[in-house]
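forwarding from the other thread:

> can someone predict this with zinc ion?

sure thing
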Amino acid sequence: MEENSSKEKIPDKCPHCGHKLSPWQQVLLNVDRILTCKNCWYKIILTTPPTKDQSEIDESLSSQNDKE
Ligand SMILES: [Zn+2]
């Protein structure tokens, strides 16, 4: 089996100061899930958002619909 899908997008620049990350830094970020920007020392942390919760929110929203 090959897992070729990249679910997450690795940022190519610091979200804080916009400093461009080198390809090597992007690799480190992908592996460690955390990288400190060398420019502003901002900690870039990759988080995986829970996809399950979204459907629950959808359900509670639609249940508010009043039918006549
Ligand atoms: Zn930065």
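Strands lie at 34-36, 43-45. thats all i got for now
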